[in-house]
Design goal:
Elements: E1 10-12, H1 20-50, H2 57-86, E2 90-92, H3 93-126
Antiparallel strand pairs: 1-2
GO molecular function: G protein-coupled receptor activity
GO biological process, one term: sensory perception of smell
Domain G-protein coupled receptors family 1 profile: 40-129
Length: 129
C-alpha cells in the first residue's frame, strides 16, 4: 500500500476579478490608493522629522502611526498588485507566512499607538498647561 506523500508548496489565491479589464482596473485602483497613502504618510514623516517645532509627544506618536501604516501598506498591497497585473494566483507558503506575520505585527502595533494618542489628546484638552 502506497502512502500519500504530496506536500503543498504554495497557496492558490482567489482572483478579485475574472476578466482582464477588471484586473487592470483593480491594479490601477490599488496603485492610486497606495501611492496616495504613501505620499500622505511620507509627508507626515518628513514634516515631523524635519520640523523642530513638531518634536513633541503628540507628533511623535503621529510619526509612529504613519510608519506603522506604511508597513501595513507595503506588506500586502504589492503582492495584490502583482497578482492583478500578471494574472497570477499563487503565493508561496513562506511568503504567505511572512506577509501574515508582518501584517499582524503592524496592525497590532497600531492599537496601542491609537490608545496612547487618544489619552494624550484627552489630557491636553481636559487639563491644558
Amino acid at each position: 500500500e502506497m502512502s500519500n506523500s504530496s506536500s503543498i508548496s504554495h497557496f492558490l489565491l482567489l482572483p478579485l476579478a475574472d476578466t482582464r479589464q477588471l484586473q487592470l482596473l483593480h491594479f490601477c485602483l490599488f496603485l492610486a490608493i497606495s501611492l496616495a497613502a504613501l505620499l500622505a504618510n511620507g509627508l507626515i514623516i518628513s514634516a515631523v522629522a524635519c520640523g523642530h517645532l513638531l518634536h513633541s509627544p503628540m507628533f511623535f506618536f503621529l510619526l509612529n502611526l504613519a510608519l506603522s501604516d506604511l508597513g501595513s501598506i507595503l506588506t500586502t498591497v504589492p503582492k495584490a498588485m502583482h497578482n492583478s497585473l500578471w494574472d497570477t494566483r499563487n503565493i508561496s507558503y513562506e511568503g504567505c507566512v511572512a506577509q501574515l506575520f508582518f501584517f499582524m505585527f503592524f496592525a497590532t502595533a497600531e492599537f496601542p499607538l491609537l490608545t496612547i494618542m487618544c489619552y494624550d489628546r484627552s489630557v491636553s484638552i481636559c487639563k491644558p498647561l
